[in-house]
Amino acid sequence: MFDNYNERIEALLESSKEWFMTNVVNFDHIIQVGVVIILSGLSWFLGRRIKPYLALKFESLKVSNRLLINFINTFLSQLMGLHLILFLGIGSLVHTQFAGEALLIDLLLTLTTVWVLIKLATAVIFDRFWSRAVSVSAWSIAALIILDVFDPMLALLDEIGFDVGEVHLSILSLIKAGLLLLVALRLANWLTVYVDKQLYRIPHLTASARVLISKTLSGLIYVIIAIVVLNSIGIDFTALAVFGGALGVGIGFGLQKVVSNLISGIILLSDRSIKPGDVVQIGEVYGWISSLRGRYVSVVTHDGHEYLIPNEDLITQQVINWSYSDTKVRVKIPFGVSYDADPHQVRDLVIQAVRSIPRILKHPEPLCLFRAFGDSSLDLELEIWIDDPKNGVGNIKSDVLFRVWDVLKENGIEIPFPQRDLHIKSGGKVID
To answer: What is the CA radius of gyration of the chain?
Structure first.
């Protein structure tokens, strides 16, 4: 098989060499090459000189139409090609008049004209990637047709390949599949972005449902792309049974955690126990959910750290969701006063003091509870309610304790510390 391919390639190279020696390597064509080089340099020089002047002229027109702006920019980028077309046309006429047919000049004139026309036509495509991809592909096909090698090239690429089972994969089929895959991925990317924008416009759709729908549609889109690409190269899906079995074994042994996190992510999105914006505490991590991903949850803390916690941990471990069903949160703040203090007076003072803190809710009202007679103090506990746990719990505790300290100091109420009385008995016998 490969010997046949080698013979075909050697024959093609030999015919190309013969054409090159016959049509290029002669005195007249060498002169044409020199003329083309000189005209190309002149076109480049004039394009560089004229482009700034024309850009200022177009800018003074203050064009607002996006399509027209894109066409003007494309036109300015092709000034060298336009000058080269003009000069090559003149050169071809002069050469034909005095020295006969200008094969190389006419060939370059045709290729340059086709390139400029394709670039101007693709100016209607605003995406830069698509514009370049379409223009390069169209010009490449046109060049092969102009050179009269398009059909032989396709035939050769279709013959060179290898067999996978009963499927023959040629270079041509792989190129087609690659181009189809590239186009399909770009379309899929555009489609997923469009779907996300449309989902955000639905007012009653929750954030978790929005993410779940978006991820599900994205997965379906990429599955369809895989099916289409594989089908385009003639692969029967029954031939993938062995690959599917191997993939299943790989998942069973090496990708357990990955699959577990993916499934856990779907569960979290569907049951809405965790959603973007929730304030959660997972172990020592306290923060709010920034985003839900297929493999992990992003939790941002008040110190600017962003923890990427695997989805599986949120399913199997205890999670405190401070805003699961209600954003109101009760915060308990214990403190103690001296046994000489009146607990009734302390209760009234601290409740009145903390009411002026903006973050503390008026309803439910703050409470001060007498918890126990401690070893060195009367143990009390202040209970307050807030509805913005996202802004932090530790800082509101700090504000309350500062306010309690101030009001107790102002009223001469002592905050005790542990004390111990040590009694030393004397009267033991002294031995000289």
So the answer is: 40
